[in-house]
Design brief:
Length: 754
């Protein structure tokens, strides 16, 4: 077969839009085959190269490196190639127009290390090339069509994992768990105002839209109105990311026994709180709005105006609002309606830091990122104004384009984190979210974690200034579903003849072949909590621990609404979203003990952890290294005795360990289990069921196969129930409080940290 380069124009639909953006064939002493996988945006996610003998029927060409760990056909499944094991290839047939060869590799799963042999059939056509790939385990029979291409796609292999390891379970020294456990300090709570009001926002989020300008004014008013107590609640559109604002308002009215007064317009809201503002600050909606770059003066003027408003007790307005505000007797306190137009984003933020940083509250930082370019969704701005926080959306990406922003972002987080530490308060919370135009979630969380800070998002999280004032009722206690039973030494041994537990409970006398537990992640507010079907099957829901400090009443609502099949687990990695591998080792124990105190109050027994700090700088952390290190697992075992299990990952992360705890850390075992499947919201019910069945067939060494599944917020409980109906016999869906003791007593996974 002659040398050529090809790019895929047709083929199967894979997660992330994965496709073969480049297949290169060159002939020398052997055929050299190069494959590059790209995502739907044509960005490289994995690359590999191997050699195939020119002559058919010869021996295997051995000892070839495994360049990429990715099983690109299904990156959301707990299967990967072993990069520490060599590959081999041999040619079965070759001529001028076709090449048929086999490639032998080693794959890893939760329970197994096994060899796979892929059969490749390549054929030149008048239009380019076709390729068929066949594999028995995991099953695959896929056909691709290619057109000629150049080799312009840059090679960027998926990050190699370290050598495979099966390390012994770490035993922590007795002294490591002796430090006293800190307790998170709650925000001050003024309670519900004698009269409280509700205002409905319009569904307008474009920077140039006058309706957005009204929304911004209302949000800034909310922050001021709620400084002493909960007085102004905002109802967001039904399709808002947190789509429950109307439901929460009604729950507040019912649970606190006090009705609200609806406001018909922004003018009514201004009249109701006419004595609250000290004046107004102007921003510049007519400034530049670059979609992806370093100059967006409209947005920067808004962020600086919000910072100023918090310190001045001012409303955030545009020129159109000025006549009405003057009629209220308000005066202009700061003017950002044009002064930032010739500045880059970093210049605008540096100017704001020089003027407003010294007097800003540094218990939190407000990262008002998220949606970007020509739009903004500043729902968390209310709490930033209420608490007098510094607003920014600087990039945390360390590339030449973003180097100056990165340096200033690092400086802000470092100074705020140091201020919190000197004050002896809670560790810094970075509220909000990163800018989708500037950087990535994992660069943002990594930077915060390096300074011992934690994140509480998103930028769309509404009404924090209001909900933060609501204290829990006297005597209220958080009660999760029944706590996990202690693992019994008399538990039945693994068996190949298994009874299947029905959804809602598992028999203590029988173990399923596959023990599943499903965790709906990304927080209760974003998830399917309020959608139809909840309570029909056992389900776990993430509880973001900072809510206990900030707005415990919202957690009260969720706990009161929980059914017998709803169980809560802690998230994410600590007392807020952080990456434990990026946290300085001296700071991690204190953060975990802080998380433990919240878990005790909230009656939580498992923690979801995720760490993408070692992932390559790309938009898909699932294609990078998101494993936990042995040192981090040991820290969880020593300093988070409240957790019986760590469920690790977003997609599969391939960390499995059963850690023996020292007596001072509570004794027993900590089960660290990677999510072995990410339930892709775009996958079909049939394809998801087939993936889970494949995992069950491959992980058949010992029962039960412990299958933890991450369910993204867009998948409803009803959709998951449809998947369950298509699974073969031997699968049991267990609530996490029944799954945990099984995992402790039967750690059937292969221990590894890579």
């Amino acid at each position: 077969m002659i040398s050529a380069n090809y790019t895929q124009i047709a083929g199967p639909a894979y997660p992330l839009g994965a496709h073969l953006c480049l297949v290169g064939i060159s002939a020398g002493a052997a055929y050299t085959i190069r494959r590059e996988w790209c995502d739907s945006s044509n960005a490289s996610i994995a690359a590999e190269e191997w050699r195939v003998p020119l002559v058919a029927g010869g021996p295997w060409m051995e000892h070839q490196p495994t360049d990429s760990r990715l099983w690109a056909a299904q990156v959301f499944t707990g299967l990967e190639f072993d990069v520490s094991a060599p590959r081999a290839a041999r040619t079965l047939a070759a001529n001028a127009t076709s090449l048929v060869f086999e490639r032998r590799s080693t794959m890893l799963s939760s329970q197994r290390v096994f060899n796979v042999t892929e059969l490749f059939s390549l054929r030149r056509t008048a239009e380019g090339m076709t390729m068929r790939v066949q594999l028995g385990e995991p099953p695959m029979d896929a056909s691709f069509t290619f057109a000629p291409a150049n080799a312009s796609v840059g090679r960027r292999a998926s990050q190699r994992r370290p050598e495979k390891s099966a390390l012994p379970s770490p035993l922590l020294p007795e002294a490591t768990a002796a430090a006293p456990a800190p307790v998170p300090k709650p925000w001050s709570r003024g309670g519900l105002a004698p009269r409280w009001f509700s205002l409905k926002l319009s569904d307008a989020w474009l920077l140039a839209d006058s309706a957005l300008h009204d929304n911004v004014l209302a949000i800034s008013l909310q922050g001021l109105a709620n400084r002493q107590h909960a007085a102004l609640y905002l109802e967001y559109p039904k399709d808002w990311a947190y789509g429950y604002t109307a439901d929460v308002r009604e729950w507040v009215a019912t649970s606190r026994g006090q009705a609200y007064e609806p406001l018909a317009s922004l003018s009514d809201a201004l009249a109701a709180f006419a004595t609250v503002p000290n004046g107004y600050v102007l921003w510049d909606p007519e400034g530049t709005t670059s979609a992806r770059g370093t100059r967006n003066s409209a947005r920067q003027s808004l962020l600086v105006a919000l910072t100023a408003a918090g310190q001045l007790g001012a409303l955030v307005a545009t020129a159109v609002h000025v006549p009405a505000l003057r009629a209220m007797g308000l005066t202009l306190l700061a003017d950002y309606s044009s002064v930032l137009r010739n500045m880059s984003d970093v210049e605008a933020m540096a100017s704001a830091k020089a003027r407003w940083w010294a007097d800003a509250t540094k218990d939190e930082l407000m990262w008002m990122g998220g949606e970007c370019g020509t739009q903004v969704r500043p729902a968390q701005a209310d709490v930033g104004v209420m608490r007098g926080l510094f607003f920014t959306d600087l990039s945390t990406l360390l590339t030449p384009q973003w180097a100056d922003e990165n340096a200033l972002a690092e400086q802000l987080i470092a100074e705020a984190a140091d201020s919190c530490e000197r004050a002896g308060g809670n560790p810094l919370i970075v509220l909000g979210w990163h800018s989708y135009c500037k950087d990535y979630e994992h660069t943002f969380i990594t930077m915060a974690s390096r300074h011992g800070a934690r994140n509480h998002g998103l930028n769309t999280n509404p009404n924090l200034s209001f909900m933060s004032h609501l204290a829990l009722p006297d005597g209220f206690r958080f009660k999760n579903r029944p706590p996990p039973a202690e693992p019994s030494s008399a538990a039945p041994p693994p068996s190949s003849s298994l009874a299947v537990a029905a959804p809602g409970g598992a028999s203590a006398a029988a173990l399923p072949r596959v023990a599943m537990t499903f965790v709906q992640t990304d927080g209760l507010g974003l998830g399917a909590w309020s959608k139809a079907g909840r309570g029909a099957i056992p389900y776990s829901w993430e509880v973001t621990l900072p809510d206990l400090e900030i707005q415990p009443a919202i957690l009260q609502m969720f706990y009161e609404q929980a059914t017998i099949n709803d169980t809560f687990v802690a998230c994410l990695s600590g007392p807020g979203y952080l990456y434990p591998k990026a946290v300085p080792p001296a700071k991690l124990p204190g953060l975990l003990r802080l998380a433990g105190a919240s878990m005790r109050t909230l009656d939580l027994h498992a923690m979801v952890a995720f760490d993408a700090s070692a992932a390559a700088t790309a938009s898909h952390t699932v294609t990078g290294d998101c494993t936990l290190s042995a040192e981090v697992v040991a820290a969880y075992a020593a300093h988070l005795p409240e957790a019986r299990a760590i469920l690790n990952g977003y997609g599969p992360t391939f960390t499995f360990a059963s850690s023996r705890r020292a007596a001072s850390a509570g004794g027993g075992n900590l089960s660290t289990v990677s999510f072995d499947y990410y339930l892709d919201p775009s996958g079909t019910v049939a394809s998801i069921a087939a993936d889970l069945a494949t995992l069950g067939e491959i992980n058949d060494v010992a029962a039960p196969y412990l299958l933890a599944v991450h369910v993204r917020e867009w998948s409803t409980v009803g959709r998951v129930a449809q998947v369950l109906a298509q699974l073969p016999d031997g699968f049991a869906l267990l609530p996490v409080h029944e799954w945990l003791p099984i995992a402790e007593a039967h750690p059937t996974f292969r221990p590894r940290y890579h």
